Amino acid sequence: MLQIINLAHNNFSGEIPRRSLTTWWSMMANKDDSLVEVKFLEFSLEAGRDGIGFSIEDGITVTSKGSEMDLRKILSIFTLIDFSCNNFSGTEEIGEFQSLYVLNLSGNALTGEIPSSFGNMRVLESLDLSQNKLSGQIPPQLAKLTFPSFLNLSNNQLVGRIPTSTQFST
């Protein structure tokens, strides 16, 4: 039930461990839900309940959207992976995290193309793949992302057009 995984600024190298990625269930969409929605934040008017459909956990400091933030309280639905500033390679399985809000893989040794599966991350708000050795085009599947407020793909070897979508144009 890990929600926040922060391995930033270490000397880790090699492929991101695939076995770990396939067991982090809280970052994957609930198989019973056809779409991850903000319905978790709705309030219930049921008698005898406090009506809150989520819980709040203790705080932590994270890097998101290019800035360090102190999160004093964490919603139980908030998920974050920060593997920045290591020497990791391999990212394909991360595209399965349909309930992931923040992904920071900047400053690693990622090569090849950005996986098209990243377009499956339906609630992703922040994606930082900067300062790697990624090549090829930005996959058009990234245009399916509907919530990104921060996208950093700088300092790579990407070519071609930026995909068109409502979010990318703003």
Automatic annotation (TrEMBL):
GO cellular component: plasma membrane
Principal subcellular localization: membrane
Keywords on record: Cell membrane, Glycoprotein, Leucine-rich repeat, Membrane, Receptor, Repeat, Transmembrane, Transmembrane helix
Keyword tRNA-binding: no
PANTHER family to which the protein is assigned, alphabetical: LEUCINE-RICH REPEAT-CONTAINING N-TERMINAL PLANT-TYPE DOMAIN-CONTAINING PROTEIN (PTHR27004:SF435), RECEPTOR-LIKE PROTEIN 12 ISOFORM X1 (PTHR27004)
Subcellular locations according to the entry: Cell membrane
Keyword Secreted attached: no
The name this protein goes by in its record: Uncharacterized protein
Pfam family, one: LRR_8
Annotated family: Belongs to the RLP family.
Membrane topology: Single-pass type I membrane protein
